[in-house]
Amino acid sequence: MTDVIIAGGGPTGMMLAAELRLHGVDVLVLEKETQPNDQVRSLGLHVRSIEILDQRGLLERFLEHGKQYPGGGRFAGIDKPWPEHPGTAHAYILGIPQPVTDRLLAEHAAELGADIRRGSELVGLSQDADGVTVDLAETRLRARYLVGCDGGRSTVRKLLGVGFPGEPAKVEWLRGEMEVTTPPEELAAIVAEVRKTHKGFGVGPAGNGLYGVVVPAEKVTEDSTVPPTLDEVKRQLRAFAGTDFGVHSPRWLSRFGDATRQAERYRVGRVFLAGDAAHVHPPLGGQGLNLGIQDAFNLGWKLAAEINGWAPVDLLDSYHSERHPVGADVLNNTRAQSELMSTEPGPQAVRRLVTELMDFEVVSRYLMEKITAIGVRYDFGDGNELLGRRLRDIGLGRGRLYERMHRGRGLLLDRTGRLSVDGWADRVDSVDDAGAEVGVPAVLLRPDGHVAWTGDDQTGLDKQLSRWFGAPVG
């Protein structure tokens, strides 16, 4: 019996597979497509995802394939500079096409020993007290747990019968990568003019002589999985820009809408949902892929703890209680952004007001932290303002904090020199550093980098070690 089967080999599934393998969990990833998807559905990574990569020692390989865009924040297409002190060591957006992100995460998972099977589609499932049975077209598999990372049309979610309430798509866009004949300067000028009133329109260089095109569709189709034709793209380009830019030779074409839905439950027994299987929303703010990676980062260590036998009671349930509100908040802010991008007089008036409000640093910071996910705070009860938040990377006497988190374990950062993780040393590392740049005597971090405790007394520390890392050994 496999420990965990993951349905879906996108960024969420591969991130989860890698997190599980860090803790020695047997992982099988089932991906129905025989070849990696080459469609650029996401263009970059936000701060929290960048920090996650840094925490696992992956950032350098991503930086080699991406481009940093520092010092800017965007909400509903409203560009404002970031606050002077953004609260992160990575104050930039990492521009990197999703196929590259997918490939790098898949390579990482494979390096750690994940079994990745392409051309394998889950078609049925059932579960009992001991595990989950997964049906493929020609075989049946057994695992202790199953995680559905199989996208917005998730088969796992549908088979579970989990509700997916929300709103259907009201608007649809066409997109693709293709060649153009219009000179670059002329094209840029036309696009800039169109975007003054239509923020959902874009034509720009995508590399290798291709241009990425995004243009509103004429109407919402019944089946968004059917790609548009080149003629349809040309027609819509002419409708919005007065020219089709001479587009030709598309590498790929697709369509997407603004459907907004969230799974009612992220866990049903031994089966979990993560990424787009748990939530879909408009792509405004570029949060979708990032949200899925962050789901996986939250779930991975908890599921590994259960499989390895030290998980405290209710640790697995905390995946839903922590991540469902985060997903709901993303749905909420993308709904708001959608309204602000309407060309109607009312929403445009609100947009002008929000634009003015974003000149206030407190407003700009609040919205920036929402989009980048560094403002996420899990409810761990009352305590220091750090409690429940992720801790930014800080300097240590030797090196820096995130360099100590590559193994995916808990971490006690102790400035007092008096505290101990004895009894939990198989799960939690300890760093004594009187000069650590953190404004509390000591801080206990979960494997996902969120602050589980601050203080200076061993009794309080032991209580939180038991809460998050189970019973002590010995």
Automatic annotation (TrEMBL):
Keyword Flavoprotein listed: yes
Record-annotated FAD-binding domain positions: 2-333
Keyword set, alphabetical order: FAD, Flavoprotein, Monooxygenase, Oxidoreductase
Cofactor: FAD
GO function terms (MF aspect): monooxygenase activity
SUPFAM superfamilies per UniProt: FAD/NAD(P)-binding domain
Superkingdom in the source lineage: Bacteria
Record carries keyword DNA-binding: no
Classification via NCBIfam families: rif_monoox
Protein name: Rifampin monooxygenase
Source organism: Rhodococcus pseudokoreensis
